[in-house]
């Protein structure tokens, strides 16, 4: 049981990581321009969406990730993208008997570098009312698979994945608002099931320095991999599914610098934590 619960903790990190797909939407960065963010993401939960979609109680698990995210325009159509979680912390609280108060399972933790992503985005249609980009993202298995005193806490899944995506965006209200859509296919190795991802973002500028948006991501497993849920496999996060809704508010105090904060909710899911996630960041625009 302990092994399974520690895997749940790391699965939740994907709810935050996948949101980076929408940093630029369908718009590639102009040549020599970029967007860079230093961020922190946290989720702590004692509730879990079981494989049948029902919420069950678990020992309190958590994931905390400090990361760097960046987009840089190599040309007016080609943008390079990187996500580097330089500090990832997975935790599992100790468990006590409700009857005697005695500890029945020790708590555990692991601190390490996390699974990272590098990618490119290419603008197929630019300088039009509706812009369209295609992307390729490579997931690098740089996290810890056997961490903590028990050797079962993880900050990475050990599989190299490749995701292809199409994003489309349109400015609204004379450029004061926007809408973006996402369609992506994620090919996962090591007998993990592949995934289809769908997304929608709506955003608007409020006054001169505030921005508000909401991001919706739906991840669906194709269930074409092996059953990796048994503890003997030592691998986690297979066949996860969720519908994540993330409102975000940003403040840009000048042309270059700003701060952003978001709260993410899993409206439904399978094999993911069932509590809100919180993220904060400071960003730079070149």
What is the correct CATH architecture?
Beta Barrel
Helix content: under 10%
The number of distinct helices, counting runs of at least 4 residues, comes to 2
CATH superfamily heading: Autotransporter beta-domain
Shape: globular
In whole angstroms, how far apart are the ends? 48 Å
Please state roughly what percent of the residues sit in beta strands, choosing from under 5%, 5-15%, 15-25%, 25-35%, 35-45% or over 45%. over 45%
Instruction: From the alpha carbons, calculate the radius of gyration and give it in angstroms.
Output: 19 Å
The number of domains is 1
Q: What is the ordering of alpha helices and beta strands?
A: HHEEEEEEEEEEEEEEEE
Mean pLDDT, nearest integer?
86
Secondary-structure-based class equals mainly beta
CATH level-3 fold name: Lipocalin
Highest CATH level, the class = Mainly Beta
Poorly predicted runs of 5 or more residues: 1-17, 230-235
Beta strand count: 16
Topology:
Layout: H1 2-11, H2 13-17, E1 34-49, E2 55-73, E3 78-92, E4 95-96, E5 103-105, E6 108-112, E7 116-125, E8 130-140, E9 161-172, E10 177-187, E11 195-206, E12 210-221, E13 241-252, E14 257-270, E15 272-273, E16 277-285
Antiparallel strand pairs: 1-2, 1-15, 1-16, 2-3, 3-6, 3-7, 4-5, 7-8, 8-9, 9-10, 10-11, 11-12, 12-13, 13-14, 14-16
């Amino acid at each position: 049981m302990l092994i399974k619960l520690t895997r749940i903790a790391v699965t939740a990190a994907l709810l935050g990581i996948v949101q980076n797909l929408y940093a630029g939407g369908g718009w590639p960065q102009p040549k020599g321009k970029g967007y860079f963010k230093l961020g922190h993401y946290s989720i702590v939960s004692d509730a879990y969406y079981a494989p049948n979609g029902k919420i069950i109680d678990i020992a309190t698990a958590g994931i905390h990730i400090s990361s760097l995210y960046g987009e840089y325009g190599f040309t007016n159509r080609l943008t390079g993208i990187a996500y580097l979680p330089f500090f990832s912390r997975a935790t599992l609280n100790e468990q006590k008997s409700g009857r005697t108060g005695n500890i029945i399972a020790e708590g555990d933790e692991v601190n390490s570098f996390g699974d990272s992503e590098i990618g490119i985005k290419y603008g197929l249609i630019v300088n039009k009312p509706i812009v369209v980009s295609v992307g390729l993202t490579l997931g690098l298995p740089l996290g810890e698979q056997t961490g903590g005193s028990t050797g079962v806490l993880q900050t990475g899944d050990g599989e190299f994945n490749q995701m292809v995506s199409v994003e489309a965006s349109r400015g609204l209200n004379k450029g004061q608002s926007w809408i973006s859509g996402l369609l992506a296919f994620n090919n996962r190795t090591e007998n993990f099931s592949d995934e289809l991802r769908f997304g929608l973002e709506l955003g608007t500028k409020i006054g001169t320095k505030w921005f508000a948006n909401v991001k919706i991501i739906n991840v669906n497993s194709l269930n074409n991999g092996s059953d990796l849920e048994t503890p003997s496999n030592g691998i986690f996060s297979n066949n996860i599914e969720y519908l994540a809704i993330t409102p975000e508010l940003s403040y840009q105090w000048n042309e270059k610098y700003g701060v952003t904060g978001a709260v993410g909710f899993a409206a439904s899911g399978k094999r993911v934590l069932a509590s809100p996630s919180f993220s904060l960041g400071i960003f730079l625009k070149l």
